[in-house]
Design a protein that fits this description.
The complex is a heterodimer. By secondary structure, chain A is mostly helical. In chain A, 82% of the residues lie in helices and 0% in strands. The longest helix of chain B is centred in the C-terminal third of the chain and has 29 residues. Chain B has a five-stranded parallel β-sheet with strand order 3-2-1-4-5, with helices on both faces. The chains are: A mainly alpha, B alpha/beta.
């Protein structure tokens, strides 16, 4: 079974990769078919994931762990919204209210907390690590904030030049990081295609 | 033409280095974060605490999936090493497919250690499907489950600030790496020894996941030099007006 899973995974990976580089008709069709199957499996994975989420919360409730009440609330909310979605469809006004009246405000609140958390983390950087790079990091962050801050008198003179100057370094640095990440991704993909790394079917 | 060429070259080099590494193991440079990770794994087993591995929200059908796969390779080894612990490692993900793969990886780690009966599928969890629901679902795990070390390895966004803040409140150890630039800057300010850029993909090699991971690092180094030389030559040619 494991051998079959490995052969299937390697063959699928190679077909999709070849279809990407050499877009000839049979390869393209195969690639499209495989991608469609992958989408269906991904959709099923969401259902399994939700089952896992419920199972984890139910275990919390059963063993009376800390935060079990929140787990109960989560499961109850899930059942209600899932039931309403099944009964009336996802476009129904009642179901959409769950999104606009609950999920959007909650996520907006978390976004607001996130802004404060990020500022706090930057301030604490010096407590954790005092080195040249930390100083550069904070100075650039502060200058960047000053450059973009709106003033009643319009843009501060010279800020555009500073922004451009900092941008030269930050864009170069970002590209360097992204090239490194792309190389890492390439090698990780190759290990999976060669069947050396098998995150499926028990490596 | 360049892309297939680069791919074929990388594939050839990877196979060559895997063959080479069978004879002589690689000497890896010291990365403080991974040194601490290896120590933290031993400590967690000894003092009966738990490891929390957060694999992020890297969807396997996008280019972000590679960081998730790197996290899974590391998880496989960690689960094998900590399977004897009273408190097994707990894994949170923000993508359903990734959550299933994390369960499978955990189980294979236990199986390899001969302790498959100790595996619980609830230790591989889907925490949430949106960035903030993922953060909200992961924070209780960080707070309530006797975790001594948090490992954030995968695709995160700015919401990672909430995760590292929660970890810090518990005075837990933290190892963090991401392929996302926003998360990298968050981790840079929050982690003791931040991992930057492609160091994320070195995780497998540093936890002893196998020679293929060491070979990957060698190939990455060679390709990186090739790209640096190409950029420099390209710049000089452009400067000289040849291209």
């Amino acid at each position: 079974m494991r051998l079959f899973a490995t052969v299937l995974a390697i063959a699928s990976g190679l077909i999709v990769l070849l279809g990407y580089f050499y877009p000839v008709e049979p390869l393209l069709n195969l690639r499209l078919q495989l991608t469609n199957w992958a989408m269906i499996i991904a959709a099923m994975a969401v259902l399994i994931g939700i089952y896992n989420l419920v199972a984890v919360q139910m275990e919390k409730i059963r063993t009376r762990q800390k935060g079990a009440a929140y787990g109960g609330l989560l499961v109850l909310s899930l059942i209600i919204t899932f039931g309403l979605g099944l009964a009336f469809g996802p476009e129904d006004a009642t179901v959409r209210t769950a999104v606009t009246a609950v999920i959007v405000p909650v996520e907006s609140s978390l976004m607001a907390i996130l802004a404060v958390t990020l500022i706090y983390a930057s301030i604490r950087l010096f407590r954790r690590r005092v080195d040249v790079m930390s100083v550069v990091f904070l100075v650039v962050a502060i200058i960047s904030l000053i450059v973009v801050v709106p003033t009643p008198f319009g843009p501060i003179p010279g800020t555009l030049a500073i922004q451009h100057f900092i941008g030269l370094f930050s864009t170069g640095g970002a590209r360097g990081l992204l090239i490194g990440i792309a190389l890492g991704s390439l090698l990780t993909g190759l290990r999976v295609i060669f069947g050396v790394d098998r995150p499926y079917g028990g490596n | 033409m360049i892309a297939p060429g680069l791919l074929i070259l990388a594939a050839f080099l990877l196979l060559a280095f895997i063959f080479l590494r069978r004879r002589s193991p690689a000497a890896l440079r010291r990365i403080d974060a991974y040194e601490r990770l290896n120590r933290a794994v031993g400590l967690a087993v000894e003092n009966g605490t738990r490891l929390h591995v957060s694999l992020g929200r890297g969807n396997l059908f996008t280019t972000r999936g590679a960081s998730a796969l790197a996290g899974l390779a590391m998880l496989r080894k960690l689960s094998e090493r900590t399977s004897v612990s009273d408190n097994p490692p707990v894994v949170t993900s923000g993508d359903a497919s990734l959550a299933i793969l994390s369960q499978d990886t955990l189980q294979s780690g236990y199986r390899a250690a001969g302790a498959e009966e100790q595996y619980r599928f609830t230790t591989g969890r889907l925490a949430g499907l949106t960035p903030f629901s993922y953060a909200a679902g992961t924070i209780p795990t960080e707070r309530d489950e006797n975790v001594s070390t948090h490992i954030f390895l995968g695709d995160f966004g700015a919401e990672s600030a909430l995760l590292v803040e929660a970890a810090e409140r518990q005075n837990s150890d933290m190892i963090a790496a991401s392929d996302n630039l926003a998360a990298q800057s968050v981790f840079y300010t929050s982690a003791q020894d931040p991992l930057v850029g492609e160091e994320l993909f070195a995780a497998g090699a540093y936890v002893g996941a196998g020679i293929s991971h060491e070979a990957s690092l060698n190939v990455q180094d060679i390709l990186r030099w090739l790209i640096i030389v190409s950029i420099l030559v390209g710049s000089l040619l452009k400067f000289a007006g040849v291209i």
